[in-house]
Amino acid sequence: MFDKILIANRGEIACRVIKTARRMGITTVALYSDADRNALHVEMADEAIHIGPPPANQSYIVIDKVMEAIRVSGAQAVHPGYGFLSENPKFAQALEAAGVAFVGPPVKAIEAMGDKITSKKLAQEAGVNTVPGYMGLIEDADEAVKIAGEIGYPVMIKASAGGGGKGMRIAWSDAEAREGFQSSKNEAASSFGDDRIFIEKFVTQPRHIEIQVLADQHGNCVYLHERECSIQRRNQKVVEEAPSPFLDEATRKAMGEQAVALAQAVGYTSAGTVEFIVDGERNFYFLEMNTRLQVEHPVTEMITGIDLVEQMIRVANGEALPFGQDDLTINGWAIENRLYAEDPYRNFLPSIGRLTRYRPPAEGAMGAGTVRNDTGVYEGGEISMYYDPMIAKLCTWAPTRAQAIETMRTALDAFEVEGIGHNLPFLSAVMDHPKFVDGTMTTAFIAEEWPEGFDGVTLDDTALRRVAAAAAAMNRVAEIRRARISGTLDNHERKVGTEWVVEAQGDRFDVATAADREGTTVTFSTGAAMRVEGDWTPGDRLARMTVDGVPLVLKVDKITQGFRLRTRGADLKVHVRTPRQAELAALMPEKVPPDTSKMLLCPMPGLIVKVDVAEGDEVQEGQALCTVEAMKMENILRAERKGVVAKINAGPGDSLAVDDVIMEFE
User: Fold this and answer.
1) Are 510 and 524 in contact (CB under 8 A)?
2) Can you tell me the distance from the alpha carbon of 458 to that of 571, in angstroms, rounded to the nearest whole number?
3) Largest separation between any pair of C-alpha atoms in the chain
4) What pTM value is reported for the model?
5) E strands, 281-419, where?
6) Which of 458, 464, 467, 364 shows the shortest CA–CA distance to 411?
7) Residue % of the chain over a pLDDT of 90
8) Alpha-carbon gap, residue 174 to 503, rounded angstroms
9) Given the DSSP bridges, would you call strands 606-611 and 633-638 parallel, antiparallel or unpaired?
10) Which residue from 370, 381, 312, 314 is spatially nearest to 341, judged by alpha carbons?
11) What is the C-alpha separation between 52 and 542, in angstroms, rounded?
12) Given 3-state DSSP classes, what are the helix, strand and coil percentages for the chain, each rounded to the nearest 5?
């Protein structure tokens, strides 16, 4: 076995590889840029080597720098993780030339699967189902229209070298095919330096389901069942699970066998993933093969009990797989939620800054299931603008899908993140959505269910009453503490009453509380009563309660006469007052938010790249005003209506916080 492995990556996946290598007794070497000097993966590794400035194209993906780090460290093998150099054949070739083991597939397999046209032809030859389409080079728009007509609309026009949704268009008519061909060609040329285009049938009601394969250097290849990855936003996966709630045993077996056939056809070794698009009738078609470890690999590990990173290392060391296909059964259900540093209330714009609070739920048993959290950050650490915005991968396992979902709901409620915008509320909303609960989602799920963007969760009456009951019980605990304060005037004892008015989400609940040693019974004016028990002390940021025996986890912040409570994706200001206080509060004028309609506010922390207008300019609706860069993505801010620029407060090179005023209008 290798004595020392270098991990050519950063963040969460570097930490993940280090954990397995440490368990195997292998010394690990981390790489870090200037921005990652204090990163978690650097702290966890046995050794760490500085590799350059923050931008990845000056550090993590510069092959010469990585090779020099390998030479200095004396590492015998390299695990590339995912992204960066993981699917770069030139890097694999450089390692081979240096006599260093690549913990991944052979160069030829990377090259064959890296080109969409070549990979589809190889898949057809291997007997893998492929989407009907035309794989040859398409010369012009006229030929594209002719081919699209022969395949039958709708069609997908795609760049051969594409990825991440670039160079991709859907056409429903000749006119759209003509326009889409030229747009895809232009986008592919500018993004990849390769303007080759192909056309295939667009699958309606599609689900994205992938098969995990694992092969050794002795001719053995198995599939470790499937992962459902249909919940995506802008072609970026958000929620994954294993197995799929949609597949039957026959389809699973057919997909698995075809994935193995493709892997064997290209001489594949190590872990890889064959992605399929599956229609409503369970017809499945090859999409692409990822020649690396996938982000969502933990859910496969949780249902099979196989450590994929360990097997990748053993395969790279020349060992044979210790199991066969018949040994790989499905045990229970696993779900992964990707926690991103992006603000769902601002159309998921990236959010950077310091994690002032980062408290994931404890790993291990939770209710009927278990929790796993793969992460590369820590409290006090910084989310950088230079890299991927993923903070963590929260995973749950349970014997059944319903139990895995319920465990995930509780885990999300218990996950404390402060200091940046994040998508925890959105993930909670997905977990409670009927389509997800039923398992009937497609890749269009997010676009269809939140077409105008995400603006929070509104609790139903039952859930709101449970929160109101918990708030009333918590308020009683806080009132008792306030009544016991020392140094009070004689004959001024504070009495804790039993009648309270709870207001939340625009609703009012008149309640009475009756407490004992075990908890509090909260009775509503309707006569209905709820029993509240739990462990919460004033000042605690997390309350773990039960209401009528059902768990309720609340993130808690104190506000005047009540609490800010967050649960199941809802963010509530809950006021708990005496009847007299509530009567007086109702007479208070409502605070009107400031008018910002004549201002352009910065929607995210970022850097002004350029300003496209000057003071005194008249602008039209939709006109570009300025460009803000965050996490290496440029965001063009446009005018919402016609107007005249009165004042410009920021210029190129300025770093702005959220809601900083960039410019004002007359």
Assistant:
1) yes
2) 9
3) 94
4) 0.86
5) 284-290, 333-340, 342-343, 349-350, 353-354, 357-359, 364-366, 369-375, 382-383, 390-398, 416-418
6) 364
7) 77
8) 57
9) unpaired
10) 381
11) 40
12) 30, 35, 40
| In the predicted structure, residue 164 carries a pLDDT above the cut 60 | no
Residue 313 and residue 5 in contact, taking contact as beta carbons nearer than 8 Å = yes
Q: Which residues contact 482 (CB under 8 A, 6 or more apart)?
A: 494
The Cα-based distances of 126 to 106, 213, 286 in angstroms read 18, 15, 11
Q: Provide the token pair at 139.
A: 């010369």
Residue among 87, 226, 228, 288 flagged as catalytic: 288
Cα separation, 8 vs 63, in Å, equals 10
CA distance between the termini of the chain: 71
Residue 332 token pair: 């229970």
Answer whether 377's CB lies under 8 Å from 392's CB.
yes
pLDDT tens digits, 377-414: 999 999 987 888 899 999 999 999 999 999 999 999 99
Residue position matching structure tokens 């940021």 = 541
Distances (CA, A) of 20 to 4, 81, 153: 13, 13, 48
User: Which residues partner with 236 through β-bridges?
Assistant: 233
CA distance 666 to 118: 57
Phi and psi torsions of 382, nearest 5°: -115, 135
Q: Going by DSSP bridges, is the β-strand pair 342-343/349-350 parallel, antiparallel, or unpaired? A: antiparallel
CA separation (Å) from 572 to 382, 499, 558? 27, 22, 12
- The answer to whether 288 is a known catalytic residue is yes
Cα angle 32, 37, 42; round to 5: 65
How far, CA to CA in Å, does 152 sit from each of 140, 177, 181, 536?
Answer: 18, 11, 16, 62
Q: Is the preceding peptide bond at 538 cis, omega within 30 degrees of 0?
A: no
**Lowest mean per-residue pLDDT among 157-171, 230-244, 504-518:** 157-171
3-state secondary structure of 92: helix
Are 611 and 628 in contact, with CB atoms under 8 Å apart? no
User: Which residue reads 């509320």 in tokens?
Assistant: 425
Q: Burial, 627: exposed, middle or buried (Cβ in 10 Å; 0-12, 13-18, 19+)? A: middle
**Mean pLDDT across the stretch 208-222?**
97
Residue 213 — left, alpha, or beta (φ > 0 → left; ψ -120 to 50 → alpha)? Answer: beta
| H helices present in 193-326, as ranges | 249-265, 297-304, 308-316
465 pLDDT band, cuts 50/70/90, is: very high
* DSSP type of residue 270: E
Residue with tokens 């056409």: 171
Which residue from 15, 658, 621, 22 is spatially nearest to 352, judged by alpha carbons?
658
Residues pairing with 417 in the sheet = 358
Closest listed residue to residue 530, CA positions, set 519, 539, 521, 543: 521
Gap between the Cα atoms of 109 and 93, Å rounded: 12
The token pair at 287 is 């999409």
What span, in angstroms and rounded, lies between the C-alpha atoms of 546 and 552? 5
Which CA distances in Å does 74 have to 5, 27, 106? 9, 11, 22
Residues in the chain: 666
CA 244 to chain centre: 18
